[in-house]
Amino acid sequence: MLELRDLTVHYGSRAAVRDVSLTVERGQTLGLAGESGSGKTTLGLSVLRLLPRSAELSGSVLLDGEDVAEMSWGRLRAVRWTQASVVFQGAMHALNPVRRVGAQIAEPMELHGVSGSVAELLEQVELPASKARAYPHELSGGQRQRVMIAMALACDPRLIVADEPTTALDVIVQAQVLGLMRRLVDERSLSLLMISHDLSVLTSTCDDLAVMYQGEIVERGRATSVISSPRHPHTAALAAAFPTIGAPEFRFAGQAPVREPLLRTEELQVNFGPLRAVDGVSLEVGRGEIVALVGESGSGKTTLARTIMGLQRPSSGRVIFDGAPIPLKGKALKAYRRQVQLVLQDPTSALNPRHSVYEAVAEGLRIHAIPGDEESLVTAAVERSELRPAELFLPSLPHELSGGQLQRVVIAGALALGPRLLVADEPVASLDASVRGEILALLLRLRAELELAALIITHDLGLAWNIADRVAVMYQGRIVEQGTVEQVLLDPRHEYTRKLLAAVPSTTRA
Amino acid sequence: MRIAGKLGGAVVSLSMVVVLGFFLFRVIPGDPVVSWTRGRPTTPEMQAALRAEWGLDKPLPQQFLDYLGKLLRGDMGTSFTYSRPVLDVISERVGPTLLLVGTSTLIAVLLGLWLGIRGAWRRDSRFDRVSTGVALTLWSTPTFWLGMLLMMATGDLFPSRGMRDTDTAPGFFSQAVDVAHHLVLPSVTLIAVVYAQYQMVMRSSLLEELHASYLTTARAKGLRDDLVRRRHAVPNALLPVLTLVFLHLGLVVAGAITTETVFTWPGLGLLFYEALTGPDYALLQGLMVVTAGAVVVMNVFADLLYRVLDPRVRAA
Amino acid sequence: MSVVWDRRRTAWAAGWRAFAAQRSGVAGLALLGLAVLVAVLMPLLTGADALNVARVVAPAWEPPGSGHLLGTDHTGRSVALLVLNGTAVSLLVGLTAAGLSVAIGTLIGVTAGHFGGWWGALLMRVTDFFLVIPALVLAIALSSVLPRGMGTIILAIALTSWPSTARVVRAQTLAVEARPFVERARALGGGHLHVTGKHVLPAVLPLVLVNTTLTVAYAIVAESTLAFLGLGDPTRLSWGSMLHQAQLQGAVSKEAWWFLLPPGLGIIAVVLAFTLVGRALETVINPRLRG
Asked: Which of A428, A455, A503, B172 can pair with A172 through a Cys bridge, CB separation 3.0 to 4.6 Å?
């Protein structure tokens, strides 16, 4: 169906894809895994020759035996969407914001003279026909992705290229969309080339797996065997980032410390107008304890974290730190913020692009006018977060460092103030799979060495299994379940927790 | 609900215009009588009489209330130069200005949008470079200077004074032709200076939109380039430009003042100039309140229009 | 920290290279340099009598060529000398009015963006109001009630042209404040002064610079327009006041193109130069605009 022969794509002098040969047979489903910058998206775009003008392509892309690279523009336009179609990542941006989705689904049918009905297509993706009149912004993320899939099916193509089709969706919605794709591919015996950074997503949908690394395919085989016995070290690192919950080899946390209370919220409630974001939450974090706060987007977990930091005022209830309620303003609040530090999700945006590593780490020291030699305090904090030798990193600007290194800088900035609690909002979600393990190990070491407690906010149950002592599950502003990791993840009591666990795509699925 | 909010905002804006009119002409000058009678032979007795007549001997808040009350009754005072109510003088001049500004804006917008779209789509082509260069140069040109130059360059080809000749035969058709003939030079001047901003805004809006990923989707579906542009890119890029068209109306008004002055086109702009040479402060005050108010109202229309056109705003 | 200084120097050098890569921007800068030179040197080079109406002996309305490079005006003064000497006032008014306007705009924009709430909403309401109101109409009203003079012109232009800067700066302030690094700075304990001083202002300044050049362009045209309408400083010579005279003395009907063309071309050249420099700076700041 699709055959790539020695495909190489250059952007200027940089090769994004190097000598890739790959085939997708009729009815075959192939998953293409890789980290950001591995060239997987470029490869996906080259199937329909959608690369920007600056890209230079050599080798051949055979679609049903015909070379896409050699086609005339007219022929290429005829082939697009009829032989192969694409489900793009981020349906919010891939759909035209000011046209009704029905018209957008119908557009390729009119264009290629294919008969069919929008209502039927919507039914296939389990959406009511009335949604055809909706605009993209009126739909939820999952619904938009379904619209993208319906659109991809419009001209009955033989091959579908899906580029990160479920990234940015919540776990439960992701499971539904993946299930839908699996069903459609089976029913219509389509060929599927699915591109993702998430190995668990790929293995739950595809029979075969190819792993891409720095523009090259480093491993290819049946999905199950690639996962269970990876031959390339990069594949192994990728696989480790998607832990199997319950498997002891993925549990990194040691013995939990004896509980001594450090932070406690009492019936905390935060309202935004009529909306109740946090609804009566009582949560505890002990000294040196790692607590994972798990929930989907919109569950109120980030608001809860901001309230604990004193960045958001509670509507009612209290936050007790070290036996005393936290101050709401002035000098006392500033002093409190030395004790509790924030680590944000995306380190590339959590650092001011104009400030060097030194300035970023020293920022807190200067705000609090910490006495002592600034340079040695900064160096110590940077080395603590394992950027060694510190002198090498201090003058760097954020754009010169990798994601993992940046997250260490953020952590160093927090450590410089000698805090007792870290509040980490999705600390590894935007990092590449291979650095994820290193950052988690760092957090565990800091706990062991400094008795540093952490409240980790995440949507990722696997992360909780990796390092947390206790887990709290948040749903619609409430904590629906909390307990030790083993209790909550292995023997869930609440229905919502069960649903979450069931939706986690697992690499061990046969 | 939000429309009601917008209308409320417009009412607030209009009241701010009214307050501004009072503030500018009654408060800033200190003693308005001194400035209003500047350049005219007056005795202290005459000034005192004027002060009493205008109620300037009353406290400021009282003066403001009087001003407001009169304004609500459509009384904007009496013009020195015309010795007639300001509102009458102004309303006579509205028609010619609407004709000039209306035609010019319409043509300038169409021209600017077309040039902007073509330029952005063929970015850095010869067409783009030349049209951008011309636009920037014209944008840098003082309107009145261009008008004077055009007048000199075209010689007797087009009439350059007023709106109609006195000796034109009666009858709608010949009158209309005469007005159109007179309209050529002023409107060309106004268009030349104004269209550039529409072109630049359209061009950058479309360039910005060309990065959008839904255009890749459209291309992947097999759409021809011109369809991708017409159906997807341009409608999206056009939306923000629409509000700017109305927001820039103030600049058109500014251009109209000098254009009408140069070509003695009998509209509000020329009236502005006449009021300035007087100086006829009552007339100036009225003109400021009326033009500013008109622009505020136009912008409310723009906002409502935008609400109808953009589904994203409509829902919000 | 010499490292920091090295880094700043390289950043500036990179910025300059990006600017220098745009020929139109460099041309604009060269033109500006020339204009400033003329503005500073001409008053020193011109004899006291050359522009004194009472002392001039040449005939009025003399076309270019014979003796006078660009002919003479209605009083017999050399148009070439008038134009060159008019540069100073046009530039001075443009620069000071723009500086004042951008300062007001930046202050209001940053305050409105940073503090938000009802205070920010109020500031924005006022800004939007002044953005919609025709600036020139306001400037005309202001300069007609205030005593004639260069200060009035500057004030009238500055007080009516700040809203666009305020808008742009507010948008950029909001964009910066939405970035996680500001949240991080707050979480570290940073107050208003820290956030605005260390994070917002440095990010806003390049934009302010661009806006200044564009506002200068506007201010120069506005000055000439006010002068043309007879609101200028009657004691000072500027390009606008020359054109005002040209209109009053009927240069058009006399077909005295030599009196009309030079001041207008002077305005276009300087305004275009500022615009080109501004656009080139904009491209340096926002690489997405690059081709």
From this structure: A503
Mutation target vs C (from A354, A370, A423, A430; most C CBs, 10 A cutoff): A354
pLDDT tens for each residue of B138-176: 989 999 999 999 988 887 788 878 888 877 778 888 888
pLDDT confidence of residue B308? 82
CB contact (8 A) between residue C188 and residue A367: yes
B114 and chain C in contact, CB less than 8 A: no
**Residue C52's pLDDT is what?**
72
pLDDT at A509: 41
CA dihedral A77, A83, A89, A93 (to 10 degrees): 40
A77–B223 CB contact, under 8 Å: yes
Give the residue among C79, C101, C283, C264 at the shortest CA–CA distance from B137.
Answer: C264
Instruction: Note the residue count of chain B.
Output: 316
For residues B283-298, give the mean pLDDT. 88
Q: What is the pTM of this model?
A: 0.84
Q: How far is CA B17 from CA A243, B10, B275, C34, C129, in A?
A: 65, 10, 19, 42, 9
Indicate the DSSP class of residue A325.
Answer: E
Write down the ipTM of this complex. Answer: 0.87
Q: Where are the alpha helices (DSSP H) in A113-267?
A: 118-124, 141-153, 171-187, 199-205, 223-228, 233-240
Q: What percent of chain B has pLDDT over 90?
A: 34
- How many domains, in total, are found in chain C? 1
Chains that touch C (3 or more CB pairs under 8 A): A, B
CB contact under 8 A, C252 and B277: no
Amino acid at position B238, single letter: L
pLDDT given for residue B106 in this prediction: 93
Pairing mode of beta strands A55-63, A66-67:
antiparallel
Give the strand pairing for A208-213 and A191-196.
Answer: unpaired
Does the pLDDT of residue B133 top 80, yes or no? yes
Domain limits for position C166: 18-52+71-289
User: Between B249, B277, B288, which is nearest C141 by CB?
Assistant: B288
pLDDT tops 70 at residue B38: no
- Looking at residue B276, its amino acid is L
- Tokens 């005795």 sit at which residue? B43
Torsion, Cα of A490, A496, A502, A505 (10° steps)? -110
Residues A149-167 as b or e (16 or more Cβ within 10 Å = b): bbbbbbbebbbbbbbbbbe
C7–A351 C-beta distance less than 8 A:
no
CB contact under 8 A, C184 and A351: yes
| CATH code, domain with C152 | 1.10.3720.10
Largest CA-CA distance found in chain B, in angstroms, rounded: 85
For residue C13, being part of any structural domain is answered with no
Judge whether A436 is closer than 8 Å to chain B, CB to CB. Answer: no
pLDDT lower than 50: segments of chain A: 509-510
Question: At B82, is the pLDDT very low, low, confident or very high (cuts 50, 70, 90)?
Answer: confident
Q: How distant, in Å, are the alpha carbons of B159, C103, C230, C246 from that of C261? A: 21, 34, 19, 10
Using the beta-carbon criterion (under 8 Å), do C145 and B29 form an inter-chain contact? yes
Pick the CATH number of B94-277 from 1.10.290.10, 1.10.3720.10, 4.10.230.10, 3.40.50.2000: 1.10.3720.10
Give the residue on C whose Cα is nearest the Cα of B271.
Answer: C229
The alpha-carbon gap from A105 to the nearest alpha carbon of chain B, in Å, equals: 10
